[in-house]
Records
---
Amino acid sequence: MSDNEMMDKEEIFSKVLRAGRRTYFFDVRATKAGDYYLTITESKKFTNDDGSFHYKKHKIYLYKEDFVGFSEILEEMTSFIVEEKGEEVISERHQKDFQKSYEKDTDNSNREGVTASTESFTDVSFDDI
């Protein structure tokens, strides 16, 4: 039996969660004894300088005897984060604030007779480089 056939035989049930540059794979697999376990794989895409890309993968094996404890702690941790920080992704909020600021600056600079204030600029000397 080839490795591919063995892999096909092992995988019982799978789900995929795509999250930007990350993809999560949830796979139910079978042990040699015929019992089931769960693998969670995070795959993250990285781009090289030459434009080519590669993936880095991290895998967790979760066995039935650990399901209850794992589920309880996962629920506790995710609830804590949502209660403390809400459901909004902070980096998205910063991105929106940056976009609003950029649009405001662009709108002001496009108005006739309006000049940009130089108070927010920093005088930089390149003599030290």
---
Amino acid sequence: MKIEVMKSKIHRVKVTEADLNYIGSITIDEDLMIASNLIEGEKVQIVNINNGERLETYVIKGIKGSGDVCLNGPAARRVAVGDVVIIISYAILDFEEAKTFKPSIIFPDETTNRLKSSF
């Protein structure tokens, strides 16, 4: 049996830009991607703390060290600059493997979107 489990989580980052006229997706600072074990093109769920919106999109690598978190395309209508979001990805694992799997969870500073702690 296979089950879906949380693989990566960026807990509470501030949206720095919302670009309606971009192709689509979410641009994330490369430092945050590395720390949370996300890769470019990976499907993610975005949970908006400010308005309760949930959406799915894919990751685009942002400039390393920039603190950028930009919702692009139609997703830009579901956030406002300054909103706080949680970014989550999932993996499908064998049931037994899932019991010992440890997700990558990071807690960036909400003001700067720079990494402050992880586990």
---
Amino acid sequence: MLIKFKPITPSLRGTVLVSKKELSKAKPHKLLTKKITSTGGRNNQGRITSRRMGGGVKRKYRVIDFKRSKIDVSAEIIRNEYDPNRSAFISLIKYDDGEHSYIISPKNIKVGEKVISGENVAIKNGNCLPLINIPVGTNIHNIELKPGAGAQLVRSAGTSAQIVSKEQPYVQIKLISGEIRHINKDCKATIGEVSNPDQKNIKLGKAGRKRYLGFRPKVRGVVMNPVDHPHGGGEGRTSGGRNPVTPWGVSTKGKKTRNNKKTNVFIIKRKKK
């Protein structure tokens, strides 16, 4: 659910945020947190390698169970939480044997519901099972690319993929980008969509809120000097005067950068342009 504010200040006039009233206000489960250090976009020599990073509110990393390797042990949703490290919400689950774990919250999952991972478990929101045992047309997320490696695809807020067809030894998956690709039938996936679908509609409203998230200001190349950027210089307002490039002369704005010929065989249809 989205929240709009009364415009009692200039920044609140345009602010639209996601409501978190359904989420727990408790501190994260201590045994499932790690220290995370901020690089500010610098490498081990102190040089900027990723621009526009720095500052931000200090965070703890929540260790998410992307493998769901506890087979046929039921778990209860204890609480749903906000995670500052990702766009989706996370859920703390407690297995019947007493162990706790964090998972990516599926959409509409409620506290007290049960989830389970296994070979032939029910096709129910939050359950995890191999692709070969999931019916065609089912919405899924947290998809593995290699059996047992842990989920890598479809993990961000509001996303889901769909099983198109099955043909040994692969399952055809349609991703949210429009790409259709083969994935090994033994790879696991979780039933349902990822939580927080309204994430795409938020408006931060002020520069400061962007700074809390660890982003520094972005300066366009066309307002720089020629020494600083290929688009720089010129009399008055000039819009580059050449094909869009990075400060290092590499083509940008639409240039394809994918360079993984090993997995081309798995892609049936490229993503939408």
---
Amino acid sequence: MTSNGLRCFVVATIFLSACGVKSDPSEGAKSPLGKGTTAKDFTTKDVDGQTFRLSDHVGKSVILIDFWATWCEPCLAEFPHLQTLYDQNKSKGFIVVAVSMDGPDSIAMVPAFVKRNGLTFPVVLDEDSRIASIYNPRKSAPLSVLIDRAGHIVVVREGYNPGDDELIAADVRRVLDAVE
């Protein structure tokens, strides 16, 4: 294999999995807060400088927390699907909360990214990694945590591959349709 071919293979492999540690998405990620655990509250700022509290949404909404970064290609590939999922289900009590794990070198790019991509769900900043330390200590990207209306973690998915959007959508529908 030529060096150019090897480089393309490596880039494609990274693009089709995750920017962090990869696990089988059907099994969910290894997380300190596993299925059935009560979601822990956090307060942070969104890209507009407004305060966001997870507890403001528990009891009212099914919540998908999605950890991402501007430098993560699979994260960027996932965003159009998350926006569609949000648009289709927000009237049913569904919210996506995108938690940017960008650090000092790239955090300034987040607001422009949100605007350029027309993201209408909350995008919050985790500059000090406080939120990641609760839900995503390995800092895997992307990593999605689905929380039911009662505030319990239902599914944790790590990584993103084409077609995973269908699995995430099925999880969301199942939780939205569940009687709690």
